[in-house]
Specification:
423 residues; mainly beta; 16-stranded antiparallel β-sheet
Length: 423
């Protein structure tokens, strides 16, 4: 029986590392994570039996916040009984970044301020300005995983672009654990801007359309079976969508087509996680999801004002992970389509795999990745468009456009000064 929970909050650098004046300064400048951020993520309470699975998943919840370089949960004996001890070591959360990229005759520049743990509350604040090959953009974002009633997460994003603007608001009550019984989310998105279309690797767009999108998506699911080993969840997706296009040179009135979609979903997962470091973040302990997961669904599509575009839109996603000697591998895929009385109207499928190997210690990593996809009658904004950091590197923006693609990459990483990754 757990009699009490003790929370120990450590700085960015521990007492041994604080012998360096720079690391001492970093600890003093950093606003430590509040205990009120840590406690809601714990899946066990005082007065309950010791549950090692709940303790392990609580540690995963805390690491998933992205605020800590390390999280441990263990037990100690005291005069009053068994005490669960939660120890968190903060990661440095404030960054002012400058990014310059150049490929061929194209270049981009961006500068950003990001505070991932605003005043120790777990809130994320972002402001970024960038110039890119086809546009400039000013972005703002605020997010908090438990903004409303300490349960519902909020994410607000707005982007002002030279060729349009976009706003996204998300409210989310996720499955907090594998055994959670219910999850729900609501997303609202609006976009009004240009879509440039490139064909055959051309450097100047041969077609420009105006896109106006308004989207409202509700997703809810209930677990019919759930424990520490996995789950079976049934759910519902409902969406109202306006997604219209008009040639930039056209003087015709902008169309206003509204599409309603709704249908059931089924998700099955067998849980498996691996703890590692230096995968997505340097010098932070991370949980890599190697679970076997399958999700399927079928949505009924109804267009307001007429029946010709009515149909059904099935989809399926899968993800499989496996530990391999000195590393792990992940294979994932997604396929979706929309069918009407005349057959397949549009659809796409993407398959990708990644393998990570540790080479001779904690500083070296080898990453191998391959993926490919195909699309049928994709909307202009949904066409495959690779280059300038999207897909294969060293190619300019829009170097590869079309309805099919495949590529493979290999990357070697060596961490020169691991301690600087904390800053």
């Amino acid at each position: 029986m757990v009699k009490a929970i003790e929370i120990r909050r450590l700085g960015v650098f521990d007492s041994a590392e604080e012998s360096n004046w720079l690391f001492r300064l970093v600890n003093r400048l950093h606003y430590g994570t509040r205990e009120s951020v840590i406690r809601p993520e714990l899946l066990f309470r005082p007065g309950t039996p010791l549950d090692t699975a709940a303790m392990a998943e609580s540690a995963r919840n805390l690491r998933a916040l992205g605020l800590f370089r390390d999280v441990t949960i263990d037990t100690v004996r005291s005069d009053s009984g068994l005490v669960a001890r939660v120890t968190t070591a903060d990661a440095w959360s404030t960054s002012i970044g400058f990014d310059i990229e150049s490929t061929g005759n194209q270049s981009s520049f961006s500068t950003a301020f990001v505070e991932a743990n605003f005043l120790g509350t777990g809130s994320r604040v972002l402001a970024r300005y960038g110039t890119f090959p086809n546009y400039t953009a000013l972005e703002f974002e605020f997010s908090h995983p438990r903004f409303i009633a300490n349960r519902i997460g909020l994410d607000v994003y707005h982007e002002e672009r030279s060729d349009g603007n976009q706003s996204i608001v998300t409210l989310d009550h996720p499955f907090r654990s594998l055994a959670s019984p219910f999850g729900i989310s609501l997303l609202a998105r609006e976009f009004d801007g240009q879509v440039l279309r490139f064909f055959g690797g051309e450097s100047v767009a041969s077609d420009t359309v105006r896109n106006r999108t308004a989207q409202l998506v509700l997703q809810a699911a209930k677990a019919v079976h759930a424990d520490a080993n996995g789950y079976v969840r049934v759910g519902l997706i409902a969406q109202v969508l306006r997604n219209d296009y008009l040639p930039e040179s056209s003087t015709a009135p902008f169309p206003q087509n509204v599409i309603f979609t709704a249908g059931p979903t089924l998700s099955i997962s067998r849980a498996h996680f691996k703890t590692t470091t230096n995968y997505e973040h340097l010098r932070q302990t991370e949980d890599v999801d190697l679970s076997t997961t399958l999700s399927i669904g079928a949505l009924i599509v109804t267009k307001a004002g007429g029946n010709p575009d009515n149909g059904i839109a099935p989809f399926a996603t899968f993800r499989v992970g496996k530990e391999i000697p000195d590393g792990f591998g992940i294979l994932a895929g997604i396929a979706s389509g929309t069918y009407s009385a005349t057959g397949l109207d549009s659809g796409s499928a993407v398959l990708g795999g990644t393998a990570i190997f540790r080479l001779g210690g904690t500083r070296q990593r080898l990453l191998l990745h391959a993926e490919g996809g195909m699309a049928h009658h994709a909307a202009p904004v949904d066409e495959f468009d690779l280059g300038f950091g999207l897909g294969p590197r060293a190619f300019p923006a829009n170097a590869f456009t079309g309805n099919r693609y495949d590529f493979a990459t290999a990357e070697y990483r060596y961490t020169v000064v691991p301690e600087l990754a904390s800053v």
